[in-house]
Amino acid sequence: MSMKVIEYSKGILTLIDQRFLPNEERYFECRTVEEVVYAIKEMVVRGAPLISISAAYGVCVGLHQYKTLEKLDYIFSILRNARPTAYNIFSILDRLEKKIKSMQTKEFHKVLEEVENESFNIHREDKDLCDSIAKNGQAILPNKANVITICNTGMLATGGIGTALGIIYQGFWNGKVKEVFVLETRPLLQGARLTTYELTKNNIPTTLITDNMVSFLFSKTKIDLAIVGADRIVRNGDTANKIGTFNLAVICKHFNIPFYVAAPYTTIDLNLEDGSKITIEERNPNEVKYFKNQKIAPENVKIWNPAFDITPSNLITAIITDKGIFKPSEISKISL
In Å, how far from its chain's centre is CA 56? Predict the structure, then answer.
């Protein structure tokens, strides 16, 4: 895709505003760290890797904004609290904070320069991580595969080609992927709005289905495998991803269809023993109650709106990372 997804320069972070896709390519400019936090919370930017890159640049924005190191604790604090489930943002912010603490000098302009350089490195590294995941993932693709995925894990969610979608892109270019089936991903329709947008822009045969059509699709059409992303992978291989992923994994198990997770090492959280320990973000009920400002449910109905669910490790065939392909039980042995 030719469009600019994320760009940072001299204290200004510019993001494509994903709330308006696929109808309009509008950009959101962040000149304060508070605006970066807003962009992350309100889904201007999304996808665990891209959120972490935005947070890294958010530290730079905050330093330009306040022009003092005395605000560093505040800057890191509000960025860490932007969204609770995806692990990448925490690991990247920890990396930046450690970098700053290791510096011998505390001169503002030198710290700022170092933070900016490290943030650019983080962005470049994520592109390389995506390329490695895409390359490693080719091993699991049969020829002329029909693949199913949920949410968005491509160029709009990462600093590069994508994670799960990166494997699909490379597979298509290698002649191994025939067609991609995309779940719409209620309630914010990241699959319908973003994934199909990416795939069709790249001329990849794509079929969009609603989230409740999967079982019937599997009974009528040969689907070779599912590939999804991850926002956090814990020590026993349990995985947090966009709500609806667990459903897809259960149905794949019933139909004996391989279910793969693709994610960079920055998503792996060895501090948590299993998925029950992952904090699941619950979002505004109005995301379910309204569609494009049109009310679609009674005003007084109770609504539960978790943004993620947990797929147990026993439903996952393998986890594809930049470091290789692993069984869920092997995740704790990966050298991070």
Answer: 15
**CA angle, residues 264, 265, 266, in degrees to nearest 5:** 90
- How many Cα atoms sit within 13 Å of 183 on the Cβ side? 27
In the chain, the number of structural domains is 2
Last residue of a domain, one of 79, 110, 131: 131
CB burial readout 177-192, b (16+ within 10 A) else e? bbbbbbbbbbbbbbbb
Q: CA 87, CA 241: separation in Å to the nearest integer?
A: 11
Burial classification of residue 292, based on how many CB atoms lie within 10 Å of its CB (0-12 exposed, 13-18 middle, 19 or more buried): exposed
Q: SS3 of 103, please?
A: coil
| 181-204 tens-digit pLDDT | 999 999 999 999 999 999 999 999
Quick check: 267 and 233 in contact, CB under 8 A? Answer: yes
CATH of residue 50: 1.20.120.420
Q: What are phi and psi of 276, to 5 degrees?
A: -65, -15
User: Same domain for 33 and 178?
Assistant: no
Are 137 and 263 contacting, i.e. CB atoms less than 8 angstroms apart? no
Q: In this structure, are 278 and 315 located in the same domain?
A: yes
Please say whether the beta carbons of 264 and 321 come within 8 A: yes
Q: Is position 1 within any domain?
A: no
> For 103-146, what is each residue's pLDDT tens digit?
988 899 999 999 999 999 999 999 999 999 999 999 999 999 99
pTM to 2 decimals? 0.95
118 Cβ contact list (under 8 Å, min separation 6): 56, 95, 96, 99
Residues 6+ apart with CB under 8 A from 75: 33, 58, 59, 62, 63, 66
Which residues are catalytic, by number?
231
